[in-house]
Amino acid sequence: MTIRLASIEDHAALAGIFLSVRRSTFVWEDPASFQLDDFASATEGELIHVAETAENGIVGFISLWEPEQFVHHLFIANGHRGKGIGRALLDDLARRQPGPFRLKCVAGNSVALSFYKRSGWAQIGEGETDGRPYLLMELSKTDESTLSSPST
Question: Which residues form the N-acetyltransferase domain (predicted)?
Fold first, then answer.
């Protein structure tokens, strides 16, 4: 697996992952409310890195709002979760950027919350957006010894 900076040529594949994952996992939303062009507006101005394999092409991405070190999106394509791709993207981010990092996770998204907790993130707050409760998470430990092996 290779992790690299996204290019404009990647955006169609990234938009497809963004749409299909949201429709299949965001069960608290109407799947019909998600559109292919949501990706462009949802990631505008963000730093995006992709995870890519020779066999499958792009299998995931992470987007970061750099001014606040805020992880806005971490998406792994359907059929590729549970293979270490999300962790590799987070580890790569921690190697490239100083941290600490923050993100918001829908409180009812138990799968994502479990993943973040296993990956060293801690809850530092909570709030509500659009009537939906979320947990504010932070990863402050970016010591190289805590990261898994490099993925690039």
Answer: 1-142
